[in-house]
Write a structure and sequence with these properties.
The chain is of the alpha/beta class and 342 residues long. It contains ten helices and 15 strands. The strands form two sheets. Strands 7, 8, 9, 10, 11, 12, 13, 14 and 15 form a nine-stranded mixed β-sheet that branches. The chain has a six-stranded parallel β-sheet with strand order 3-2-1-4-5-6, sandwiched between helices. The N and C termini lie far apart (66 Å).
């Protein structure tokens, strides 16, 4: 079987992760890299692949069968459109675009050209999330009542040496919480109401460094999210899940789910429930679900290859990802309104 020829746009941290995953996949072949930086050009040379400083030139010259778009948020739309217009399936890193309006352009273009778009909310591919979804769908937790999500960690100062990370839209709401919103929608259904506060009291950048968010789901369940990228804490998907070895591992939980019949803590997968006698006077039973650890980026790439060949539809397409982006935009608006003096 011939390998599927892939190209990557963007050689930052996430682009380099995709490159490593492609090179480890026996069904895929990395054939080109588009990124104008000298470091990226040197990387392409070291990998023995074609390096380009222009996306359109790369697409026309190489004609890959699929493209992974790992550019900064503001470039997601134009780079993805360049692929779609040439009939090339594309995996667009999250968020799907830097605004709902621009994301709708992508949704419309994908539909018009009938080109599949997979959005890189890679956590949906994680075996932990698959196990949680199975347990929830089985009814073992009963009706979901509440969920709390935490994303509390301290990004190093040099993370912000990249200028766009200090600008509006690059704070933890759009860069990080969008992952949690996507997962909560995936596990608990649509969100129909939000409340929020944000702050940039620590770094004083043009974006937020902390936020608290309340959510109401269409099912009637309630949720909350607490996030900061400037505070010390062991509660975040990156630190708790162990899916990426570059982050220090902390064996804690960042999602706490309560239903009428049971509770689940993720990613430690502790499952709590009552025996025959129920209520707070009786002890809870507890088990830990065993889940085999598999790099979700590897699973995501396997899925993308099947999307390219037409074997599968995207697990999360541009229209689905747009909904998560709309929720984040609503949170941003709610935070602005909440922050007004009364």
């Amino acid at each position: 079987m011939s390998k599927i020829r892939l190209a990557v746009i963007g050689a930052g941290a996430i682009g380099r992760k995709h490159i490593a995953v492609i090179r480890a996949n026996p069904r895929a072949e990395l054939v080109a890299l588009a990124d104008p930086s000298p470091q990226a050009q040197a990387q392409a040379q070291s990998l023995g692949i074609a390096g380009y400083d222009n996306v359109e030139t790369m697409l026309d010259a190489v004609q890959p069968q699929g493209v992974i778009n790992a550019t900064p948020n503001i470039l997601h739309l134009p780079c993805a459109l360049a692929c779609i217009e040439r009939g090339i399936p594309v995996l667009v890193e999250k968020p799907v675009a830097d605004s709902p309006q621009r994301a709708r352009e992508l949704v419309d273009a994908a539909a018009r050209h009938q080109v599949p778009v997979l959005v890189g909310h890679h956590r949906r591919h994680n075996a932990l999330i698959a196990a949680a979804r199975t347990l929830i769908d089985s009814g073992e937790l009963g009706q979901i009542v509440t969920v709390s999500a935490h994303w509390v960690l301290q990004k190093p100062d040099d993370y912000f040496d990249v200028a766009w990370r200090r600008e509006p839209g690059a704070g933890p709401l759009l860069v990080n919480l969008v992952h949690d919103i996507d997962l909560m929608r995936y596990l608990f259904g649509e969100i129909d109401q939000v409340q929020a506060f944000t702050s940039h009291a620590v770094r004083r950048f043009a974006n937020e460094d902390s936020a608290v968010v309340n959510l109401r789901f269409a099912s009637g369940a309630l949720g909350s999210a607490v996030l900061t990228d400037c505070g010390v804490g062991p509660w975040s998907w990156e630190m708790n899940s162990g899916e990426n070895a570059i982050y220090a591992h902390a064996p804690e939980n960042c999602y706490l789910i309560s239903g009428t019949r049971g509770a689940l803590a993720i990613p430690q997968m502790q499952w709590w429930r009552y025996g025959e006698a129920r209520g707070w006077l009786h002890p809870l039973l507890s088990d830990r679900l065993h889940v085999e650890a598999i790099d979700p980026f590897m699973l995501q790439l396997d899925h993308f290859l099947q999307v390219i060949t037409g074997e599968e539809k995207p697990l999360i397409d541009a229209a689905d990802a747009l909904r998560s982006l709309e929720i984040v935009a609503a949170i941003q608006r709610a935070a602005g309104q909440a922050g007004q003096s009364t």
